[in-house]
Specification:
The protein has five helices and four strands. It is mostly helical. The strands form two sheets. The protein has a two-stranded parallel ribbon. A two-stranded antiparallel ribbon has the order 3-4. A hairpin with a 2-residue loop joins strand 3 and strand 4. Helix 1 packs across helix 3 and helix 2 packs across helix 3. The longest helix has 11 residues. The protein is globular. It starts with 5 loop residues before the first helix and ends in an 8-residue tail after the last helix. It binds a DNA duplex (13 and 13 nucleotides) through helix 2, helix 3 and strand 2.
DNA sequence: GATTTGACTACTA
DNA sequence: GTAGTAGCCAAAT
């Protein structure tokens, strides 16, 4: 595809996250070859907020919904995750290791 | 045009 | 085991 851009890749990978799964910024960044550019993933998702990218499936490596403050609603992100079967308590994903989806590994 | 901030992560002390 | 710093690159001020 012609979308060899960093942002586009983030959109693709994030959009490929299976139902009921989550991933971390570092995992995506690592898949793109920028293990320490996790911040760029966040920036990309910020732009993808208007796209079809399920940014609610992307959290930091601790499984914490750090980006929920950037969503329209405060609890929208958690609502979506719980809606998909993801257990979220206090903005933190439970069983994060079990539902963690690693691009490049499963992809 | 330079400085600061930002949805983070990993290493070092 | 906890705390602080460094690294990433792009957008906003």
């Amino acid at each position: 595809m012609s979308d060899t851009g960093f942002f586009e890749k983030v959109y693709q990978v994030t959009a490929l996250i299976p139902y009921g799964r989550v991933t971390s910024y570092g995992a995506i960044a690592n898949y793109l070859g920028a293990s320490r550019s996790a911040r760029m993933v966040g920036w990309a998702l910020n732009n993808s907020n208007k796209a079809e990218v399920p940014a609610h499936r992307v959290v930091n490596r601790k499984g914490l919904l750090t980006g929920k403050h950037h969503f329209k609603g405060s609890n929208l992100m958690q609502q979506l995750l719980e809606s998909e079967g993801v257990v979220v308590v206090d903005n933190q994903i439970q069983d994060f290791d079990k539902i963690f989806w690693d691009p490049g590994r499963e992809l």
